[in-house]
Amino acid sequence: MRVKQLARLMVVALGATLGIASPLGSGAAHADSTVGLGMGTYAQLVVDSAHRHLFFSPGRTGSGVRVTDLTGGAQTTIPNLPDASGMALSPDGATLHVALIEAGAIAAIDTRTLTETRRYSIGAGTCPTWLAPAGGKLYFGYGCTYGKGLLGSLDLRGAAPVTALGLPLNGTFVRPPLLRSNPADPDLLFVADRSSVTTPSSGRATVYDVSSGTPALVASMPSDTCTGLHDAALTPDASRVILGCSFLNGDQTAAATQHVAFSTTDLSAAGGYPSGTWPTAVTTSPNGSFVVVANTNRSAETSSTIRVERLDGSLVRSYKLPTDTHVERQGLAVSADNRTLYAVTTDHTGTNPTLRLLTDFTKAESSLTLSAPSSTYRTKITVTGKLAFTNAAVSSPWTLQVAKRDRFGTHVLPSVTTTANGTFSFTDTPRFGGANTYTVTFPGDAGHLASSRSVTVQVSLFTTATTRQPATGVAPRR
């Protein structure tokens, strides 16, 4: 263990001495990796952790569903799926259903073999677009004509599939309704009117009970509460729905700056999540502890910011993406083990989709500050510093690792423990002149990222100003 610790600290200290950024250094969070998807456009992402696949649909202008492994590698395409748009896994995870807009059909894909096993015709001129399983059926939002969004269902439980069209909806939907469901409440179906990027309309958020086989209205939202709805996510317990809306409460003079949550019992307000101007994509972690939101301005000079927040809206981490990089609507998802955040981004034209994988995204960033004399004789010096966490106070002592690098190598020094508020100090007497670099490392834990900081003290070759006794030049005994 001591050998591994020494090796780790030598790398950190050497990087600091040579001006190389430490791999443990704190700062703005960034994408861990990016992978091009080889697609022109993007509509939806589905994570199938059980079979270790990611599915990407292209929407109206593409054909085929792109498939990768959970790291974005081993890419392939399931062919002959024209205008593949909305996707949904069956409750048992064995089938991926894909809405084929122009074909007026829903395809069934075997999630193990990645082949199409059946295609269910919905009817010519129906344009099925979005899918969600609920109440034992597969519901779909459909409609080819602006101003005539409709709801239908596909029942696959019998010997022959049964299709129902024109199911009751509360009000007029401009586009095919966006649907959301959750196994935690299998009879709940959330229905909303997703806007185009350039033409905002009322979100018409509505909750239905489908336990009887026919949607029964539970609650509806005033038409001006959410205008320009781009994405929606049910919390893992299905108690709330979180919306990304361009405008809130009828005010279209200023863009919204947060995603808003509502109770699925009555669609009453239930909190908010700061996201920046023009809220768009939203998802939640499967363990129910985190909400992830993003904003999108669709400008070549701007970019999206992804924010990971606790249930109370407090910030855990944020990712500022490169210029002209925008998170797509329905472009966020989290792996089943809550360890990887997936984000699909495009440029300002909405093309060239890229997958970004962000690991340890639920860990708060940490940072260290250090202070020491810039120069000294070979006498005892004191190094002081402070450990801090992003958007959270340090409230208990933490143990930090300390190393020193001088002209004879790197040496592990005794660890130092912070006070309850994160401050700390330690002393050392340099044995050799020249640059003495002290590196303090916070190793991180389950809830915090590691970080390190270095400070260099220029030590005189003499012990004091009066004795001017030269250093012996002998390396320390190992």
From TrEMBL:
What does the UniProt keyword field contain? Signal
Residue ranges spanning the membrane: these are none
* Domain of life, source organism: Bacteria
Renumbered to this chain, the signal peptide range is 1-31
* InterPro entries to which the protein is assigned, alphabetical: Host-pathogen_enzymatic-act, Quino_amine_DH_bsu, WD40/YVTN_repeat-like_dom_sf
Q: What protein name applies here?
A: DNA-binding beta-propeller fold protein YncE
Q: What organism is the protein native to?
A: Micromonospora palomenae
